[in-house]
Amino acid sequence: MRLAGKVCFVTGAGSGMGRAAALAFSREGAAVGAMDLKAEAVAETVAQVKKAGGKAVALSGDVSKEADVRRAIEDAVKAYGALHVLYNNAGIFPGDDHSVIDTDEAVWDKVFAVNVKGVAFSCKHGIPHLIRSGGGSVINIASFVALVGCSVPQDAYTASKGAVIALTKSLAVQFGPKGVRANAICPGPIETPLLTQWLLKEPKEKAKRLNRIPMGRFGKPEDIVNLGLYLACDESSWTNGAALVADGGITANYF
Prior knowledge:
Elements: E1 7-11, H1 16-27, E2 31-36, H2 39-51, E3 55-60, H3 66-80, E4 85-88, H4 105-132, E5 136-141, H5 155-175, E6 180-187, H6 193-201, H7 203-210, H8 221-232, E7 243-246
Parallel strand pairs: 1-2, 1-4, 2-3, 4-5, 5-6, 6-7
Helix pairs in contact: 1-2, 1-8, 3-4, 4-5
């Protein structure tokens, strides 16, 4: 097992890519601290992990609140005695996030609170435990939209994911000498419940996005989690400060 003996802290673990990560990490032998804003959803994730023979603890809280993140990380460490991986997956992209010229201040505040501060709080309280455990891996979920422009903008989301990449590189330089690697994953559009529900209602929007993907399909949570699994395990021991793109070729597509 690639993660035997490791403890992984996963945010946004109640659904989508976060739930897939919790399940994948546990299948590879890790104990998982699964955090989500929705207590019932993360409890279901933990139930699925345990049903499959894995170990996990449900941790409810809001990643935009430092006290919640600190408590969740402390509870994960109390449960399993150490911490080796931070998988910072929690994020939002509200429907009222548009162009910079027509997005309300409240949207900017909400998006940055979850997408940037949430990552920062996890790293603030998690990295010291990684160091005490002899080193580990920080995996931050960014987005391909941080690397290219978009004619249908979500500017607060885009800017927040650019901040995640920049923060990741800073962490890589700061903590690499202490045995802690930090990398970002930049997914393309993934078939999570939120995206799927929206595109089912908007067939023109679905076709517009599929036309940009050379692979001809949206990504699946497992497409991202498999990359996360590589970054979590010791196979990636010399991968540090990278922004790894998994987007089906969108960012390589000129026309």
